[in-house]
Amino acid sequence: MAKIEFLGPLNRESIEVDIKNLNDLKEMFKEDKEIQEWLEICAVAVNDSLVCSLDTKVEAGDKISLLPPVCGG
Amino acid sequence: MSLELHDGPLHVEEISNRWFNEMKEKNYGAYIPFIGIVRDEKGISGLSFDIYEPILESWFEAWQEKAKAEGAYLLMAHSRGDVPNHTSSYISAVVSPQRKVALKFINDFVEDFKASAPIWKYDLIDGKRVYAKERSTALKGAGLLK
Questions:
Q1: For residues B56 and B95, what is the distance between their CA atoms, to the nearest angstrom?
Q2: Does B142 sit within 8 Å of A40, measured CB to CB?
Q3: Which of the listed residues B81, B93, B106, B137 has the most CB atoms within 10 Å of its CB?
Q4: Residue B1 pLDDT class (50, 70, 90 cuts)
Q5: 1.10.10.970, 3.30.420.40, 3.30.70.270, 3.10.20.30: which CATH number matches A2-67?
Q6: In chain B, which residue's Cα lies nearest the Cα of A72?
Q7: Which residue of B has its CA nearest to A24?
């Protein structure tokens, strides 16, 4: 199982999912209307590195983070 | 690594004095600080912040490497949680042997900080946190899962 973290204003509890890559996660979220509103503006990190490909593999124990738009300072 | 995170507003005098006293002994000729102050505007009583520390640390370390390559050194402090108006949530500073490198670096560093550091800002309005969505910037690769 991989852990999904919803950071900052997403303000949701983490979940555990059984997926092989990020495409699987995209499919999984298609039924989640609340998260759909955020996906267009959220970046994705796997084990704390930002990723840009849906083919990114996900292994058991990986941490996937959803990062909404940022504004520090 | 000189990245500090503090709960609540920053104690500007303590941080500034400590950094200056540490840096003045290291033979840098220029010390350029930037101190952000929370402004009283749009009816807010302050700002509030969430931080994702693992990515903030790797982002900062990458900038520290860039600074090192130019003989400079970076320092940064940021608040977690609530920060009232007219206090500070962010201090950064660059030291370098010469002024020009530090002046350029502080600008580039703060610009990228705004666009890339994994920190989320909320306005404090009537005691509630309201995500500052319209002032926020999507990170690299945003929209991958849409």
A1: 21
A2: yes
A3: B93
A4: confident
A5: 3.10.20.30
A6: B119
A7: B145
Which letter does DSSP use for residue A10 in this model? G
Tracing tokens 């929209």 back to the chain, one arrives at: B143
- For A31-49, write each residue's pLDDT tens digit: 899 999 999 999 999 999 9
Say if strands A63-67 and A43-46 run parallel, antiparallel, or are unpaired.
Answer: antiparallel
CA distance A31 to chain B (A): 12
* Pairs across A and B, CB distance < 8 A: 112
For residue B145, name the pLDDT band (cuts at 50, 70, 90).
Answer: very high
Smallest CA–CA distance, residue A68 to chain B, in Å, is: 7
Distance CA A1, CA A8 (A): 23
For B3-130, which CATH class?
alpha beta
Residues in chain B closer than 8 A to A51 (CB atoms): 141, 144
Q: Answer yes or no: do B145 and A29 touch at CB < 8 A.
A: yes
What's the whole-model pTM score? Answer: 0.95
Complex ipTM: 0.94
* DSSP strand pairing (B73-84 vs B3-7): parallel
